[in-house]
Structures are given as C-alpha cells and as structure tokens.
Amino acid sequence: MVLAQTEIDVADIKAGRKKLNEKRELVDVHQPDSDSPLIEYKSGKIEPYFSIPEIENIAEARHNAQKLQEQVNVTKAVLFAEEELENFTTEASSEDIDQDWFTRWRDCAEKVSNEDLQRLWAKALAGELVSPGSYSLRTLEFIKNISKSEAHDIAKLAPYVIGRSIHQVPCLEEDGINFSFLLEMDDLGVINGVKGGGLQLTMNSQVSDKYENALFHNNKIMLLKHESATKSVNFDCYKVTKLGCEVLRLGVFPTREQYLEQIGKQAKQQGFEVIIGDWVQTTKDYGNYYNAKTL
User: Which of these, 192, 188, 187, 168, lies nearest to 178 by C-alpha position?
Assistant: First the structure.
C-alpha cells in the first residue's frame, strides 16, 4: 500500500500537481489559471513567455520525482527478491555480496519501472544472495542493455540448453532454431561454436566399475548406462558461454521431452542403455528420480 501511494505521488510530482517543500513534505501545487498567457507580444513579434524561476522549480520537481521513482523501483525489486528467496531450496549464503556488484545492481534496478523487468533484476539479486558470484558484472551490463527482441530470442533458445550445451538434433530445425538463428545467438555471446559447425561433447563414466552418467533437463533426468566403464558417449553440440548460462538461470523455461528423447536416441545408437525419468532435486547436491522408462 505504501509503495502504491508513493508511485501515485511520484506521478503527481511529474505532472506538476504536487511538490516537495523545504521540509521535504509533499504539498499540492497551485495550478495556474488556464487563461495565463504562454506567449506575449513584443516589438511587433510574438515571443514565448517563460520565467527562469519557474523553469528552475519545474526542473527541481522533476529531479525530486525521478529520485523518488528510482527508490520505489529499487524497493520493489528487493521485495520481489524476497519472494524469490522463499522458493529457493537452499538458504542465503553467510558470505556478503560484493559491494561493487550491489552498487551496479542498484544502479541498473533503479532505472526499471516495468514489473516484469523488476522481477528479472530480483532473480539476479536473489541468486547472488544464495551464492555470491553467481552473476558477473558483465552479465548485469548484458541484461541492462539487451533489447526486447533479443530477450525473446534467448527465451526461445533456453528450452534446448542442457548443462552448458545445446545438442544438434532434428527438432532444433523443426522448432525454428536454425543456423541463422544460432549465428545470432553466437554473435550475442550466449553460445559459441556455431561458426565452426559445432563442437563435440564427450561424456565419460562417473563410476569406475561400469559406465554411468546422466543429463538433467529441468525436471527430467536421462540416465546413460553401459557394462564397460571405459566407454564414452559423444554428442555434437554448441557450447553455452558463461554469460549465457548466467542469463539463462534468470528464467524458468519448459521442458522439451522430444528434444531429450532425440538426444537419448543418439546415445542408444552408440550402444548405451538410456533411461528417462522425472527428477526432483532434494538438496543442492542430491535428488531422486521416478516414473523411469527405458528408451
């Protein structure tokens, strides 16, 4: 309620209906008579009429309104960050956020009045509170300068990111993730390897007596198994950059089961047993899977 009223007051100040007096109290502004002249006739010429003191008052009012709006923006972003923290499975770190990082975050967040963007900045703050160093200063600058269309394209790419890779499977092209689109993402710095035709991801076993490894895709897990521990599975992919990973962590994106299945088929063609199931993260390092099915 207080924030809502403050936003109304800011709008009134910007519109010239209210101002802050010397005691920093919000008071109504006397509206000039609508018949007051905006022009006057001098020496045979029509000239605009203005008063330096009046211009100074208007400039001061706008400055005060802007500062109030910036404080409202930051406060709302912090409140949204508190909401985000309630959904985290891990508690906030006891380590302090870097002061330079927070200053940069505040400078960016105070310029944003759109609620969707405020929630984006809130996610960054919440993530940094839980794990300081999660979002670099470069990532903050990237978010600050990104266009709406670029943000839309990154969100389009996001459901195909597994770990730090985007696997080259048929459904990419079918879903509009074509070479031209991927080049644009490469130019943005979100992924790399596109211009060279992609990279190869090699996955070795995580245990010593047989082959076991897994890919995680949102709430899904794909287990890869083989009786030989020396086997490795290879995938053609594009790599997601550090910047890309940090930016993508700010969103919640749908799971593409067809995409996961096509990756599984590639592993199966290499002789691996492939099991896909639902995944629940129970702690930072552990989780459980269920509803498993063999591909």
Answer: 168
pLDDT band at residue 236 using 50, 70 and 90 as cut-offs: very high
The alpha carbon torsion through 171, 172, 176, 182 (nearest 10 deg) reads -170
Residues facing residue 201 across a β-bridge: 235
Residue 184 phi, psi (nearest 5): -65, -40
100 against 59, higher pLDDT: 100
Report the candidate in 151, 166, 110 with the shortest Cα–Cα distance to residue 247.
151
Decide: 238 and 190 in contact? Cβ < 8 Å: no
Residue 104 has pLDDT above 90, yes or no: yes
Q: Is the pTM of this model over 0.85?
A: no
**Which of 168, 193, 173 has its CA nearest to residue 183?**
193
Q: How many residues does the chain have?
A: 295
pLDDT at 27 over 70: no
Please, what is the average pLDDT of the chain? 82
In the chain, where the domains are located: 2-19+45-145, 148-294
* Dihedral sign for Cα atoms in the order 202, 205, 211, 216: negative
